[in-house]
Write a structure and sequence with these properties.
Blueprint (H helix, E strand, L loop, with lengths): L12 E3 L8 E4 L5 E9 L6 H18 L3 E11 L6 H17 L4 E8 L4 E10 L15 E4 L5 H9 L8 H9 L3 H9 L4 E4 L4 H13 L2 E5 L4 E3 L2 H6 L5 H10 L3 E2 L5 H7 L8 E5 L4 H11 L5 E7 L10 E4 L4 E3 L2
Parallel strand pairs: 4-5, 9-14, 10-15, 11-14
Antiparallel strand pairs: 1-2, 2-3, 3-6, 4-6, 7-12, 7-13, 8-12, 9-13
Helix pairs in contact: 1-2, 1-4, 3-4, 5-10, 6-8, 8-9
């Protein structure tokens, strides 16, 4: 679809749409580039304040994945003002503002419309030196792949909506989704990464495959090292799987060389995440430093889940081989 749009011919555009990266990057000077992203969605949880926090953290994550320092944000709001009390909207906006303040910046305005279904998110703007942009291309054979949050938010929030988990379990998943990738990004930048992306709607398999294909490489994943939220494997086996996760497995599963994994395990690896962790490709000699700094930052996961390999041919770029079974259940 994007191929139908005019090509961008501007040397100041350092990152556009060509590699499906996490944000756009535009050079202002030789030392400064602006990084900008937009993200919004419908409520994933019942609590309005929590929804605002998660949506804001999710939008800011794109800046962190690019190695940028946030500068400011704008609200994007759709709300059924004639059907729901404005006090709910106030809570959503307060949640977003508090999370943005935690990132050290402010929301400076925004735009709202009346809409039958609530939606909330941010335009988030950051700054980076043009030589320090971290892209979702550039991974090299031999790199290790490090993940900074456990998988499973899509399946978990679907279970909450279907009353398959008690409502008192909602705050636990909110803490996971609302956790900023700020500390993870700071640790990543010190390790001089070759590539990075955040794991969001296309799941681990989708975002990893895009990173690999754009880098002209492939990868091997050790499923036994991949952290996931404890309940979700059983929930997936019972059929509690969001449509986005199912679509991810159909689309990106075709690029995977599977081992002995069950269908439920495959769905967890493809699970559509909201405000997931960073997936970092870093030289093996920097792995220990990165993991140490991630631990110091208190990230919710900090584990090597695989390695980057040279493809057998150019046509094999983007292929993922998965070995082992899921073992690293994380109890929230």
């Amino acid at each position: 679809m994007l191929r139908a749009l005019p090509e961008i011919d501007d040397p100041r555009v350092l990152v556009g749409t060509s590699t499906s990266d996490d944000a756009a990057v535009y050079a202002l000077t030789a030392d400064t580039a602006i990084v900008q992203t937009l993200d919004f969605f419908t409520p994933l949880v019942d609590d309005a304040y929590s929804f605002g926090q998660v949506a804001a953290a999710n939008a800011l994550s794109d800046l962190y994945a690019m190695g940028a320092d946030p500068l400011l944000a704008l609200n994007i709001v759709a709300f059924p003002s004639k059907k729901l009390p404005l006090s709910i909207l106030e809570q959503i906006l307060r949640g977003g503002a508090d999370k943005v303040h935690e990132a050290g910046i402010h929301i400076l305005g925004g735009h709202s419309i009346d809409d039958p279904e609530p939606k909330y998110g941010l335009v988030a703007t950051g700054r980076v030196h043009p030589d320090r942009i971290v892209r979702n291309v550039g991974a090299r054979p031999g790199d290790v792949l490090v993940l900074t949050k456990p998988l499973g938010t899509g399946i978990y929030t679907t279970a909450l909506k279907r009353d398959l988990l008690p409502p008192e379990r909602e705050p636990a998943i909110v803490r996971l989704m609302a956790a900023l990738n700020r500390g993870a990004a700071e640790a990543m930048r010190r390790a001089d990464p070759h590539a990075c992306t955040d794991v969001t709607g296309f799941g681990l398999l989708g975002h990893l495959s895009t990173l690999l294909k754009g880098s002209g490489v492939c990868a091997e994943i050790d499923a036994g090292s991949v952290p996931y939220v404890g309940e979700v494997l059983d929930l997936a086996a019972r059929g509690c799987v969001p449509g986005g996760t199912q679509a991810n497995l159909r689309t990106f599963g075709a690029r995977v060389l599977w081992g002995e994994q069950s269908q439920a395990e495959r769905l967890v690896l493809a699970d559509a995440q909201t405000s997931g962790g960073l997936l970092i490709a870093v030289a093996p000699e920097r792995e220990a430093e990165l993991l140490r700094d991630l631990e110091a930052a208190g990230t919710l996961a900090r584990v090597r889940i695989g390695r980057v390999l040279a493809p057998e041919s150019a046509a094999r770029a983007g292929v993922i081989r998965v070995r082992g079974r899921l073992e690293q259940a994380v109890q929230l």
